[in-house]
Each structure stands twice: as structure tokens, then as C-alpha cells.
Design a protein that fits this description.
Elements lengths: L9 H37 L1 H14 L20 E5 L5 E7 L8 E5 L14 E8 L2 E2 L9 E5 L27
Antiparallel strand pairs: 1-2, 2-3, 3-4, 4-5, 4-6
């Protein structure tokens, strides 16, 4: 009687291990970028209240002159021309609105790049939300609905200040001419 071979040969097993190794080598960096993008997206969610404050002030007054500090007056990191500034979460160290006479309602989200935050950003750690009406930055007399544009380093949208978060780590709506 002939014995029927059972199981896999060593070469077949080595081929399977090599394929799994190649897939892991490709998938691991993509997954790491994905997790950083998810952490960066948290800042966009946290900035919703700041967006509401700017939109409400503009719709009520047609300017940002009456936009006042909502929380954490004098919070560390607030610049001199920043009226509305507050601290937030584990990954976001600061959200501030440029308002008053010098400001145009841009919201700057600053990410924590320490070991407990998002160290992969390494200094390129800001996203800027730019309010526009009809594709033009807010200006006295502008009327209409406010549209928000997220600007990272890879953004090609015209008006406003660009953030420094690279396109690799920016959410999709912060890249290109969105």
C-alpha cells in the first residue's frame, strides 16, 4: 500500500511566510500614517465650537469685533492678537481664533508633539481653518454663508494662512484646493 502524503512541504511554508512578510512590510507604514491622521482629525472635531463662535459673531455683527474670550483667558500659548483661545485634549494643545481688528476669523489648531501627543508631527503641528464667503476671506460688508476650508502644508486653497501639518498626516479635506 502506498502512503498518501499529508501536510505542507517546507518550501510551501516558506513561500507563505515570505508573502505574509511582504504584506506586513507594506501595510504597517500605511497603518501608522492612518493612526496619525485619526489623531489629527480629532482637532477638527474639537474646533467645531470655535467655528460656531466665528459664524455666530459674523452673522450677528458682520464683523468679529465683538468676539470675546470664551474660556481660559490668558491661556499659555495665546498670541497677543488672539481674543478667543482655549486648551483642549491629549493630542490638541491649543485652539485659537484670530479675531478683533487684526483677525479674520482663522482658527489655528496646534497639536501636541510631545511623546504623549503626536510625536510624528515633529514641529509641523498646525492646521488652519479659514472662513470664506464666496471663496473670498471675510471682509467688512461681506454677506452670505460662511464656508470653512482646512489648510495644511499640502493645501492649495488660495485665501488664508497655511498650516504646517504635512499632506501625509493631514485629513483628506485639508489637502488640495478644498
Amino acid at each position: 500500500m502506498k502512503k498518501v502524503q499529508q501536510g505542507f512541504t517546507l518550501i510551501e511554508l516558506m513561500i507563505v511566510v515570505a508573502i505574509i512578510g511582504i504584506l506586513a512590510a507594506v501595510a504597517l507604514p500605511a497603518y501608522q500614517d492612518y493612526t496619525v491622521r485619526a489623531k489629527v482629525s480629532e482637532g477638527l472635531t474639537l474646533a467645531e465650537s470655535a467655528k460656531s463662535a466665528v459664524s455666530e459673531a459674523w452673522q450677528n455683527d458682520g464683523s468679529l469685533a465683538n468676539l470675546t474670550q470664551a474660556t481660559a483667558a490668558g491661556a499659555a500659548g495665546c498670541a497677543a492678537n488672539i481674543v478667543y483661545c482655549f486648551n483642549t485634549s491629549k493630542y490638541v494643545s491649543l485652539i485659537q481664533i484670530a479675531s478683533g481688528a487684526a483677525g479674520n476669523g482663522e482658527i489655528t489648531i496646534t497639536y501636541d508633539t510631545t511623546a504623549t501627543g503626536i510625536p510624528q508631527l515633529a514641529g509641523a503641528n498646525t492646521l488652519v481653518l479659514v472662513p470664506t464667503i464666496g471663496g473670498v476671506a471675510l471682509a467688512a460688508g461681506s454677506q452670505g454663508n460662511i464656508d470653512w476650508h482646512c489648510k495644511g502644508a499640502a493645501s492649495t486653497f488660495g485665501p488664508g494662512t497655511a498650516g504646517t501639518v504635512s499632506g501625509r498626516f493631514s485629513p483628506a479635506n485639508c489637502r488640495g484646493a478644498v
